């Protein structure tokens, strides 16, 4: 089931997520719905706060980046096959020289800005079967993970921009929070009440 994506301005996007247990109600159904929602919106990642849940859960599927002709064959193959579920994730280490990449977010449509992040991360997480992993990722995969990880920490990519950039996009962000935007996927805006 495709769920509405929470828009910029909703307080849930600023909350730090809570850990969950393997007994979380209908976890597999939630994951299925989140993947379907992400693909429906042509996203490469989706975090639980973006569907209104303040829990430490996010998904990543970088296959869309595999089409990038600027990448070598090994990178394209890796991105094409990278699909993971991250539960109760904790980034242990971020290393290397920060690099800029133009990021966007399904909760902040039509806003894209360069964000600086470190190129290599080590992260501890549980997968959808609640098996624990500690892995190191680099490049675009690391960046997508960092972006989604920020969501479960209550951080948006716009929080990482300079004060000048923030001022320049203030009007766009205000319009998004008021629902004055046209998107081709379901969204829930802060002034809309949840349907029960």
Provide structural commentary:
- With 196 residues, the chain is an alpha+beta fold.
- The protein has one domain (5-188): Peptide Deformylase.
- The protein has helices at 27-40, 73-80, 139-152, 163-177, and strands at residues 5-6, 45-47, 57-61, 83-95, 99-105, 108-117, 120-126, 132-138, 187-188.
- The chain has a five-stranded antiparallel β-sheet, sandwiched between helices. Strands 1-9 form a two-stranded parallel sheet. Strands 5-6 form a two-stranded antiparallel ribbon.
- The longest helix is centred in the last third of the chain and has 15 residues, at 163-177.
- The radius of gyration is 16 Å and the shape is globular.
The span between the termini is 16 Å
Report the mean per-residue pLDDT as an integer: 94
CATH topology: Peptide Deformylase
CATH architecture field: Alpha-Beta Complex
- Overall geometric form: globular
Q: Would you spell out the secondary-structure blueprint of this structure?
A:
Layout: E1 5-6, H1 27-40, E2 45-47, E3 57-61, H2 73-80, E4 83-95, E5 99-105, E6 108-117, E7 120-126, E8 132-138, H3 139-152, H4 163-177, E9 187-188
Parallel strand pairs: 1-9
Antiparallel strand pairs: 2-3, 3-4, 4-7, 5-6, 7-8
Keywords:
196 residues; 9 strands; two-stranded parallel sheet; alpha+beta; globular; Peptide Deformylase
How would you briefly describe this protein structure?
This protein is of the alpha+beta class and 196 residues long. Helix content is 26%, strand content 29%.
């Amino acid at each position: 089931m495709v769920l509405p994506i929470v828009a910029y301005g909703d307080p849930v996007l600023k909350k730090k997520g809570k850990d969950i247990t393997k007994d979380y109600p209908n976890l597999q159904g939630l994951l299925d719905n989140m993947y379907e929602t992400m693909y429906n919106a042509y996203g490469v990642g989706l975090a639980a706060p973006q569907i209104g849940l303040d829990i430490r859960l996010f998904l990543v599927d970088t296959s869309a980046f595999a089409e990038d002709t600027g990448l070598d064959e090994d990178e394209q193959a890796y991105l094409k096959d990278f699909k993971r579920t991250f539960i109760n994730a904790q980034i242990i280490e971020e290393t290397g020289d920060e690099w800029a990449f133009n990021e966007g977010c399904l909760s902040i449509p039509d806003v894209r800005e360069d964000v600086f992040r470190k190129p290599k991360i080590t992260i501890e997480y549980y997968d959808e079967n609640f098996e624990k992993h500690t892995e190191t990722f680099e490049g675009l995969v690391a960046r997508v993970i960092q972006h989604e990880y920020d969501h479960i920490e209550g951080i948006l990519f716009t929080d990482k921009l300079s004060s000048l950039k923030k001022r320049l996009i203030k009007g766009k962000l205000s319009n998004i929070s008021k629902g004055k935007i046209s998107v081709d996927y379901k969204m829930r805006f802060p002034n809309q009440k949840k349907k029960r």
